[in-house]
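User: Please run a holo structure prediction.
Assistant: Happy to. Please share the sequence and the ligand.
User: Here you go; the ligand is adenosine-5'-triphosphate.
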Amino acid sequence: MRQFILRRLLMMVPTLLGASAVIFFLFALTPGDFVDGNYMLTEARSRELKALYGLDQPVLQRYLTWLGQLLHGDLGFSLQYQIPVTQLLDQYLWHSFLLSLTVLLLYWGLSLAIGISSALRPYSWYDRLVTLAVFAAMSFPVFFLCLLLIKWFAVDLQWLPVGGMQSTGSEATGLARIGEIALHMVLPVLALVMLQSGSLTRYVRASMLEALRLDCVRTARAKGLKERTVILRHALRNALLPLITLLGLELPGLFSGAIITEKLFNWPGVGHIHVDSLAARDYPVLMGFTLFLAVLTIVGNLLADILYAAVDPRVRLR
Amino acid sequence: MKLLEFDQLSVAFDTEAGTVRAVQDVSFDVAAGEVLGVVGESGCGKSVSALALMGLLPRPAARIAGSAIRFGGRSLLDLPADELRQLRGNEIAMIFQEPMSALNPVLSIGEQLCEPLIAHRRLTPRAAWAQAEALIARVGIARPAEIARAFPHQLSGGMLQRVMIAMAISCAPRLLIADEPTTALDVTIQAQILELLRELRREQQMAMLLITHDLGVIAELADRVAVMYAGRVVEQGPVRELFRNPRHPYTRGLLASRPVPGRRLARLAAIPGQVPDPLSLPPGCAFAARCPERRTDCEQRRPALRRLDADHRVACFAAEGVSA
Ligand SMILES: Nc1ncnc2c1ncn2[C@@H]1O[C@H](COP(=O)(O)OP(=O)(O)OP(=O)(O)O)[C@@H](O)[C@H]1O
Ligand code: SF4
Ligand SMILES: [Mg+2]
C-alpha cells in the first residue's frame, strides 16, 4: 500500500511536467499579453514593461524560468493585482472552498437519498416525479436559475441578500459573522445544489437499480435476510462502488470555483478571479491556477484509487 | 403428507413484447427426504418454478395464477412476506448456477455464512463465526479459518459452490433447491459437488429439488424425475422406470441425446427443431412441431398429464394409446 502511494506520487512528476508544458505554451503562444492589451501605453513604456516582466525573452527561456520558480513554490506574480499569485489565490480560494464544500455535502447527500429511494420503487409515482424534477433541474440554464432566485428571494421577498459574502461595511465578528456569511450562502448554494444534483441522482439511481439485479442480492433474499439488510448490506455497498471514482473527481471542483454562479452572486471566490484574469490577460494567475487544478486532479484520482481499494476487496493496489 | 406440493402452478410475465407464459399448470410433489429431479431444455420454466416456490420472482412483472404451492401443509403463495422470509434460508434453502456471482464480492466468505445463522438461529456473531468455520470444513474445504476470512474472488468456482452449499445447509433445511448446481463447473469438480450433495442428503435426510438439463446428474442423484417442456410437465415418474421405459417422445429424445460413458457414438441424436416461442405457444401439444410420433390432432388438442401406472405420468396422446 505505502509502496503503491509512493510510486503513484513519483509518477506524478512526469505527468505534472507534461501538464506544466501544455499549460505554459498554451498561454505563452496565445497572441497578445498583459502589456499588449493596454492601449494607453506608449511604445517605449510598453517595451520597458515587457523587459520588466521578462516577456521579451525567448519562449523556452521563459518556460524554464517559470519552472524554476515553481520548484520554489512560487507561482509567479499577478500583473493585474500586483501581488504574488499564491497570495492572491490564498485570499480567494477559501471562499470558493467554503461554498463548494457546502454544496458538495448537500448535493451528494441529496442525490444519494433521492437516487436510492427512487431506485427502490422504480416507475412508481415517486420515481416519475423525481425523474421529472431531475430533468427540469438539469435543463435550467445556470444564469437563468441564479437570476430567478435573486429576483424571488432577494428582490421581491427580500428574505435573503442579493449577493456578496457579507453585508457592505459589515463589521460583524464571531457568531454574528458566521451567521451573516451563512445567510449570504443560501442562494448560491441553493442554485448550485439544484444544478448539480440532477445528473448525480440519475447516476445513483441507475447504479442502485443495477445492484438490485445482482445475483448476490437474490442470494441474500434466498437466505431469508430482512429486506433492510438486503438493501443496505448487499445492494447498496455494491451500488456505491462506482461512485467512488466520481467522488475523487470532485476534489479539483472544490477549489476551482463556480465561475458563473460566483459572478452572479458576487461571491468573492476564485471563479471571480478567473474571469477577471482572463479579461486582463493576467497569464501568471491563469497558469498558476490551472496548474494547481491539475495537481488536484491527479491527487483526486489517487485518493479515489486508494478509497476504492479500501472498500472493494477485489482491487489490489500494486 | 408430502413435504412439498406444486398444485397447478402457472406463472406468466408481462413484458413489452407480450405475455410470456413461463410455467403452466405444473404439478409435482416431493416427499420428505426425497430427491426430485426437474429436467428440460433451457427456457422451459425450471428456474421460474423454483423462484416461485422461494417467493423470489420479480413482482409485479411475474403473475402467479390460480394455483398453490404447499410446503409442510402450508400454502406458500398466501403466506405473509415476513413468514415466507423466515422459511427461506431456514427450512427451504437454494443454491444457484453461478457461484461466482451468487456470492457478494465485497463481503468475506465468513460474513456471508454467518448471516443466515444470525437471522434464523439467533446465534451471536462469535458463535456464528465458529459455526461458519465448521460448515466450511463440513463441505470439504481445507483450512476453514483462512477461507472464512477470504473474499469470493480469491476462491475457485468449485470452492465457491461448496461455500454456497455450506450456506444452504447452515440451518439444516428440510428442502434444498439446487438450480443447475454443477453446470458452471469443470467436469471433475462437477462429480465432486454431486458426491457432496449425495453425502449431505444421506446424512441430513433433506429433500431436494434438483434442477438440471443434464440427465446424467438426474441418474446420479434423483429418486424421481419430472420432465418439463415449454412450461409444462410432460412426463413424471421414478428415475429407473423413466430411464428404462420413457413414454413421452421428448423424454426419449433427451435420453437418446445423452452421452453414455463407455459407449462410443458416432453422433449424438439431438432432437431436431426448436423450442416454441414462449410468447406464442401453439394451442395443441407444444412438442408437436418436433415430434416423430405426431398424430393428426396433436396440433389442435393438448394432451393432459395422465397416470399410466403407479407413479408414472405422461402427457402425450401416442403414449396413452388413445387413437386420434
Ligand atoms: N423476469 C422475467 N421476465 C420475463 N420473462 C422471463 C423472466 N424470467 C424468466 N422469463 C422467461 O420464462 C421462461 C422460463 O425461464 P426459466 O429461467 O425458468 O428457464 P429455465 O428452464 O430455468 O432455463 P435455463 O436452463 O436456461 O436456466 C423463459 O422463456 C424466460 O425467457
Ligand atoms: S401429443 Fe402428439 S405431438 Fe405431443 S408428444 Fe405426444 S405424439 Fe407427439
Ligand atoms: Mg434456469
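The mean pLDDT of chain A is 86.
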